[in-house]
């Protein structure tokens, strides 16, 4: 019984060490803060330099690691205290997961979609927040499946639109939006209409320059695909001719092979018949027959 407990303990230590090794394999700039229990991963997110603290409890990997971002940022995966709580890889973490891949996915997400850095540990002050279109969904042009670049992880949503933050002109109906500058010219009532009416929201999204650019690129690719399809169809006749020619040559090759097999058998028969051993045997036999007749 005691030996089994020791083996289980040794196995847990080996798994813990393997998890730490994956952290160093899949990530760059990994620094050991405390031996076997705390590590720091440094990376750049836009113009900001961030650090991801990885704290491993005594029961790790049977329990989830504690991940914290420094300085704190505004991101759906990050809590007000800076702890990573919403990353799918962390939520689904098991003893069979790879710590290195989980951390790599989080770092990759923050590198690809740099979030705003918070001045303190909480969210920045604001008088009111409105999330245009509600949660990300196929109806308001969010990703319903796997986003590009980070397999298996949901996309980063821009920070909620902050109302009450006026532009220098002092116009109370204008608000600053870094993610969608087109919203800066809309009034609060127009924003509320977008938030409550999906048709208006769809029309607004379709009018965005980025969407027009996407539509233009899609049209170009559709045109290109049609050209490739037409070119492929135009070569169909030539392809059939080549297929027929190959079929004829294959049939000829089969006939030649059959003829070759017959000739090979004939050659082998003649080679055996006129081999030196056969000729010698025939000579001896003929001489023996002649001697027998003379007697």
TrEMBL record:
InterPro entries reported for this sequence: Mod_r (IPR009851), UBQ-conjugating_enzyme/RWD (IPR016135)
Subcellular location: Late endosome membrane
UniProt xrefs under SUPFAM superfamilies: UBC-like
Domain called VPS37 C-terminal: residue spans: 185-280
Organism: Cuerna arida
One GO term describing the cellular component: ESCRT I complex
Protein name: VPS37 C-terminal domain-containing protein
Source superkingdom: Eukaryota
Protein family: Belongs to the VPS37 family.
Gene Ontology biological-process entries: protein targeting to membrane; protein targeting to vacuole; ubiquitin-dependent protein catabolic process via the multivesicular body sorting pathway
Membrane topology value: Peripheral membrane protein
UniProt keyword annotations, A-Z: Endosome, Protein transport, Transport
Function: Component of the ESCRT-I complex, a regulator of vesicular trafficking process. Required for the sorting of endocytic ubiquitinated cargos into multivesicular bodies. May be involved in cell growth and differentiation.
